[in-house]
Amino acid sequence: MADSEPGERRRWIALVVLCLGQLMIVLDVTIVVVALPAIQRELHFSHASLAWVINAYLITFAGFLLLAGRLGDLLGRKRVFVAGLVVFTAASALCGASQSEAMLIIARLLQGVGGAMTGAVIVAIISASFPAPRQQAQALGAFAFTGAAGGSLGLLLSGVLTQALSWHWIFLVNVPIGILVIPLAVILIEPHRGLGVGGGVDALGAILITAALMVGTYAIVEASTHGWSSAVTLGGGCGALALIALFIARESSTRIP
Fold this sequence. Notes:
Helix 1 runs antiparallel to helix 6 (about 100-130), helix 1 (about 5-30) packs across helix 7 (about 135-165) and helix 10 (about 205-225) packs antiparallel against helix 11 (about 230-255). The chain has two domains: about 5-195, MFS general substrate transporter like domains (Growth Hormone, Chain: A, Up-down Bundle); about 200-255. The chain is mainly alpha-helical. It contains eleven helices and no strands. The mean pLDDT is about 90. The chain has helices at about 5-30, 35-45, 45-50, 50-75, 75-95, 100-130, 135-165, 170, 175-190, 205-225, 230-255. About 80% of the residues lie in helices and about 0% in strands.
C-alpha cells in the first residue's frame, strides 16, 4: 500500500494539471465578453468585426476538435496535450501583445487550435489514469466542475483585469498559468503510446471533417449577424453538410479511416 501512495498522489496532482488546462480553455470563451468595448475603442474594431474576437476562437476550436482527438490516438495523448498547451500559451501572449485588429483575430484563431488540441484529449487521459469506476467518477466530476465554474470565473476576471490593468491582461493571465502547467504536465502525466503513423494517415479525411466543422461553426456564429435564413447561414450550412457527406464517403472506402 505504501508503495502505491506516491503513484496515487501523482495521479491526483496530474488531475489538477489537467483541470488547469481545461480552465484556461473555458476562460477564454467568456473572459473577452466584458472587455469587448475596451478592445473596440483601442483597436478600432467596427461593430460587425468585433464579434470575431469571440468567433475566431470558437471556429478553430470546434473545427480542430475531432482532428486533435485523432492525433492524440496516433501520436500519444500526453504529447498532443502538451503541444496544445504550448500553442495556446504562445497564442495568448500574442493576443495580449496585439496592436491591431488583424493581429488579435489571427492570435485568437491560433488560440482555438491550441484549445482544441488540449481539450480533445483530457477526458481520455483522465479515463486512462483512473480506471477504477469510483475514482474515475470523482475525477470526471472535478473536470466537469472546472468547466462549469470557468465560464463564470471568466466573466468576473474580465471585469477585474480590464478595470485594474487593461484588456491585454485578460489574455496575458494565461501565460504564467501555461508556464507553470506545461512542465508539470511533462513530469506528472503518464505517457500514452499512440498507434503511430507508420501505417499511413487519412489526410484527405482529416481535411474534409475539419473543414466541415469550421464551415458549420462559421454558419452558426454568423447567423446572429445575418439571420438564420440568410444566404451566408444557409450556404454555410449546406456547405458543411456537403463536406460531411464527402467525409462519410471517404471513410467508407479508405484503407485507413
